[in-house]
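User: Good morning. I'm curious how zinc ion would be positioned relative to this chain. Could you predict the structure with it bound?
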Amino acid sequence: MINFRLDRFLTLYLFRHITKKQTSADDKRIPILMYHSISDEKEKSHPYYHVNTSPAVFDAHMSYLHEKNYSVINLQDLKKSFDARDSTKCVVLTFDDGFYDFFTNAFSILKKYNFSATVFLPTGFIHNERLSFKGKECMTWNEVRHVQSKGINFGSHTVTHLQLNNLSTKEIENEIKLSKNKIEDETGIMVESFSYPYAFPENKEFGITLRTLLKKCGYTNGVTTKIGTANNGDDTFFQPRLPVNTADDILFFEAKLQGSYDWLNKPQIFIKRFK
Ligand SMILES: [Zn+2]
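Assistant: Good morning! Here's the predicted structure, ligand included:
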């Protein structure tokens, strides 16, 4: 009973039936999927909190997108895709934390379907030698450069992966500026995307400060852990994503892509306020 998924139950048996189907290009929604580790490692917590996706499940997800003719686009092209006002089904693939298993497990599966993705690096844990973050090995700069030469994009996930809203403005600026500079120095490619670590604080003032800093440092877009599919009205710097892991069987995965998981955004805000 401990693993009962109330969110899955409500998504599949209630919200899937009442989610408004997209009727025009104006209400186009684009799912931005949030993966972390692609590995078979088991996790002890409730499946809602899991961050591992087994390679077999990940392959099944990519195969589904391929079969259903989803067009995998990059974060930078999101706005263009909304403005195109066509009915192409688009999806964005993102990976947080820069784990080594992106290189060993995810990359070959992405290549099989000719899909691109954006990987967000906490640069303090990416080195020439292998370092670990949260007990898991991270990619090295050589591996970053290798997959980048094959079409993978990189964004910043700060330097030290701290809760930014606990830091001073100067410290936040350093986290977002130094990580961007480091990735650009190591890859020679401009970094435009930022991924906010941990839960995104529902604090207007903090959002304004962070947006100003991101713009100042040259970012053009960003993603968060706020749950939902993205639409044209979202703040480009703090776009919602859909968390995905091994527990996402195809039925649940499909419901998430179709926007039937978006309802969870409101309870998520509510819980954050009371924590
Ligand atoms: Zn992270």
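Residues 28-274 form a domain with the TIM Barrel fold (CATH 3.20.20.370). The pocket of zinc ion is lined by residues 96-97, 157, 161, 197 (CB under 6 Å).
Let me know if you'd like a different ligand tried.
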